[in-house]
Amino acid sequence: MADKVAASDQGSHEFVALYNDEVEWQEGDAANELLALPPGVKVKIFNFDPVMKRIDMKVKFPPGYVEPEHSHKSWHSIVVLDGRMCVAGKDLRPGDYVFGGDIPHGPYEYPDGCEVFCVFMGEGTQHEWDESKHLAHESEWEAETDAGKTGVESQKSARASGKVSAE
Predict the structure, then answer these.
(1) Could you state, in order of their start, the residue ranges of all structural domains in the chain?
(2) Which run of H or of E encompasses 65?
(3) Integer Cα distance of 57 and 45 in angstroms
(4) What are the CA-CA distances from residue 16 to residues 8, 13, 34, 81, 136 (Å)?
(5) What mean pLDDT is predicted for residues 110-138?
(6) 151 or 102: which carries more pLDDT confidence?
(7) Could you give the CA distance from residue 4 to residue 47 in angstroms, rounded to a whole number?
(8) Which residues, 6+ apart, have CB-to-CB distance to 104 below 8 Å?
(9) How far apart are the C-alpha atoms of 139 and 43, rounded to whole Å?
(10) Which residues have CB under 8 Å from 44's CB, separation 6+?
(11) Can you name the residues that pair with 80 across neighbouring β-strands?
């Protein structure tokens, strides 16, 4: 992971100022190695401090994506930047906040897609989730956009066919 980090991988606590476009989105194997989620997410890592066990990143979820109920060996703070995150009976929009830790939380639905800023601290960013429970998930939230409606149907079909394993 260290070679994919924008800032120092040695735990430096020096000042860092980055433009968003200075850091590239990672997807596929790189995103899956970091988060261990079903395919489709992208990550943009801004800072990694192995001493503090902290990683600052953006995560982009495509329209219709469902993040399984999960836990981590760490905790995370999330702020919605764009789109919608639907979890715990709430339809969260830009500026809204989520905290999760080593206790199962979710599932999270992203009916119209979503971009978040996330800070993980702890033993790892990998999600621990039950694939059979995820495959049985029934979407609760309706999309508001055409791209979202297409994405929700695509994700439902993928779960119904059992094609949501992490890459």
Answers:
(1) 2-161
(2) strand 65-67
(3) 4
(4) 9, 9, 22, 20, 43
(5) 93
(6) 151
(7) 10
(8) 69, 70, 71
(9) 24
(10) 20, 23, 24, 25, 26, 57, 58, 59, 60
(11) 116
Stated pTM of the model? 0.89
Question: How would you classify the pairing of strands 54-61 and 26-27?
Answer: unpaired
Which residue matches tokens 């995370």? 76
Q: Which amino acid is at 91?
A: D
Top CATH class, 2-161: mainly beta
**What is the Cα–Cα distance from 30 to 97, expressed in whole angstroms?**
26
Q: What percent of the chain has pLDDT over 90?
A: 69
pLDDT reported for residue 8: 45
Higher pLDDT, 1 or 65: 65
For 128, other C-beta atoms within 10 Å of its C-beta total 13
The answer to whether the bond into 111 is cis (omega within 30° of 0) is: no
Token couple for 58: 């953006």
- Please give the structure tokens belonging to residue 144: 């508001």
Query: For residue 143, what are its two tokens?
Result: 């999309």
Which residues does 19 contact at the CB level (< 8 Å), separation at least 6? none
Q: Count of CB atoms within 10 A of residue 126's CB? A: 18
Q: 152 in helix, strand or coil?
A: helix
